[in-house]
């Protein structure tokens, strides 16, 4: 143990070979109708189409909102097809550039877009050098009204939240910067602004449900399931929305939107845990072939062997931590769903006659045994190794195997040397990964339960109002398993190489949004008697890239 070095792991998680090289973007779509039926709108009136939603509706991709992504949003693609069947103009609150990012009085408050650097996603500035976005909430907001009312980050109850677009509330996190760019007033709501346009046709998607569980999921379950709490003003930003709150908002929105005879489409919520943000990082990335990790395995197993004896004594053998010398090993995680055995671990170690000698093997005096016992209890009271049922969030790939400097400082304050403190501060190896880096099965169950409840409501609301319905949940499940085929393309839900999901692991690529647009057209045809698919008035996926070039500015 004396010779144990800091363990830096080269995970290789982002050593991807892309199926598609970064493609230049041609935003001009050529629509050719040949050997096709005559297009009809059926009973739908597309003359004034308004889309209501969140980031997918806005066209958010690659971790940002930017001009090209907005022009390839699925509502913009739908509007192009609707124009062939009596549709009118479609105004969007376009950003000023293709850097992504957003300013508030010259201060950047949203980051630039991600790009592919040949091995993985990086921020634009990491590849081309410093860039400053030109979209500023206090200087150059566009002029509405806007047909695309997609607001990245909005949850269901934000749809009816007055003041959600008040720019004064943005720095206080009381308002949404993207809605602040297009709100008609500081006191308006998204739904009010949409209704004021008197839409003849609308889409209502992913603001109903997606973000109501997404923040909880991306934070690794650092939030509260608010089931039973009907007051969303008391929710934290990462909390799961109560299904009754969700249903009330979505039902009232659908009723208001259809009151004057408008028709539309509702989409359900996918199982977001099928997205590559949650499926890319394996639970067992620790390879014995890694020269920084493999040689340390015998020493690590010796240290954890002492702890494993305690776990056996406490009758929790499932918590034992063992690293394999022949196969990839799982990371060590802190599972807040486990009973906290900190006090018991400390007590058992303090009662062990051999523990002082073990402490001396670290170069510490035997008198330090109570301190070390207390530290072992505090660090490993809810520790276990990850299993295939755990989902590590995408950012954990940059954390695993690194030394946690805060942990080092704390352990040094307890009397450990800097070297020894570093040895016990390696993320996912000697220091359990915090809850924010992993979704445990219990946390996943909360997400799926809420999602299922939302989807039951959405289908009921669509049926009650005679609206078309898109099974986005089924679409993503298909993409995550067999892949989803549209024309000459088969898209899958894998990071970088799949073609459906963008570099942020959550939002779609422009080609993915093209798939989504075609699924909406299929649902519209089935419900309202239009014939976009039969008339070949659908979006050509080949016109839309899976990657935006870094040179697109």
What's the short version?
This protein is α/β, with parallel strands linked by helices.
**Averaging pLDDT over every residue, what do you get?**
93
Summarize the amount of helix as a percent range: 25-40%
Described by strand count, sense and barrel closure, the largest sheet is:
5 strands, parallel
Structural class: alpha/beta
Envelope shape: elongated
SS summary, helix count: 18
Major sheet: order of its strands?
A: 6-1-7-8-13
- Low-pLDDT windows of residues: 1-30
Estimate the strand proportion. Answer: 5-15%
- Radius of gyration computed on alpha carbons: 26 Å
In angstroms, what separates the terminal alpha carbons? 52 Å
Outline the structure in words.
The chain has 553 residues and is of the alpha/beta class. Helix content is 31%, strand content 10%. It contains 18 helices and 15 strands. Strand 2 and strand 3 form a beta hairpin. Helix 3 crosses helix 18 and helix 7 (210-218) packs antiparallel against helix 16. The two termini are 52 Å apart.
């Amino acid at each position: 143990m004396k010779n144990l070095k800091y363990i830096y792991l080269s995970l290789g998680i982002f050593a991807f070979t892309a199926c598609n090289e970064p493609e230049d973007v041609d935003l001009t779509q050529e629509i050719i109708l040949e050997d096709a039926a005559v297009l009809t709108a059926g009973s739908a009136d597309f003359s004034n189409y308004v889309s209501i939603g969140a980031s997918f509706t806005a066209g958010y991709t690659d971790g940002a909102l930017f001009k090209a992504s907005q022009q390839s949003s699925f509502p913009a693609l739908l509007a192009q097809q609707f124009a062939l069947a009596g549709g009118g103009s479609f105004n969007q609150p376009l950003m000023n550039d293709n850097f992504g990012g957003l300013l508030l009085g010259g201060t950047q408050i949203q980051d630039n877009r991600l790009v592919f650097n040949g091995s993985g996603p990086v921020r634009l500035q990491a590849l081309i050098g410093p860039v400053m976005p030109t979209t500023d909430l206090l200087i150059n907001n566009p002029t509405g009204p806007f047909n695309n009312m997609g607001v990245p980050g909005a949850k269901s109850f934000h749809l009816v939240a007055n003041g959600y677009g008040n720019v004064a509330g943005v720095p206080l996190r009381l308002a949404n910067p993207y809605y602040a760019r297009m709100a008609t007033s500081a006191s308006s709501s998204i739904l009010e602004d949409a209704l004021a346009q008197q839409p003849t046709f609308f889409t209502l998607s992913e603001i109903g449900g997606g973000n109501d569980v997404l923040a909880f999921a991306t934070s690794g379950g650092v939030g509260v399931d608010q089931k039973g709490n009907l007051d969303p003003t008391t929710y934290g930003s990462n909390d799961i929305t109560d299904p009754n709150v969700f249903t009330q908002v979505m039902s009232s929105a659908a009723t208001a939107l259809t009151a004057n005879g408008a028709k539309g489409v509702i989409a359900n919520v996918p199982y977001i845990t099928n997205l590559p943000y949650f499926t890319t990082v394996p639970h067992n990335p620790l390879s014995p072939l890694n020269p920084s990790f493999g040689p340390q395995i015998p020493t690590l197993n010796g240290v954890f062997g002492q702890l494993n004896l305690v776990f056996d004594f406490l009758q929790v053998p499932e918590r034992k931590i063992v690293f394999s010398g022949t196969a990839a090993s799982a990371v060590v995680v802190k599972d807040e769903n486990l009973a906290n055995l900190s006090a018991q671990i400390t007590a058992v170690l303090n009662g062990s006659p051999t523990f002082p000698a073990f402490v001396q093997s670290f170069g510490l005096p035997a008198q330090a045994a109570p301190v070390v016992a207390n530290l072992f209890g505090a660090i490993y009271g809810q520790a276990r190794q990850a299993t295939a049922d755990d989902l590590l969030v995408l950012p954990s790939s940059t954390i695993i195997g690194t030394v946690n400097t805060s942990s080092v400082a704390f352990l040094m304050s307890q009397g450990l040397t800097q070297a020894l403190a570093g040895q016990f501060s390696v993320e996912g190896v000697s220091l359990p990964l915090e809850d924010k880096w992993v979704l445990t099965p219990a946390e996943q169950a909360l997400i799926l339960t809420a999602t299922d409840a939302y989807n039951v409501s959405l289908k009921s609301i669509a049926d009650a109002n005679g609206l078309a319905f898109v099974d986005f949940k089924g679409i993503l499940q298909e993409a995550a398993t067999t892949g989803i085929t549209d024309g000459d393309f088969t898209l899958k839900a894998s990071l970088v190489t799949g073609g459906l999901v963008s570099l942020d692991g959550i939002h779609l690529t422009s080609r993915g949004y093209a798939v989504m647009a075609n699924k909406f057209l299929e649902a519209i045809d089935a419900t309202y008697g239009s014939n976009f698919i039969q008339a070949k008035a659908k979006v050509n996926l080949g016109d839309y890239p899976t990657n935006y070039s870094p040179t697109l500015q």
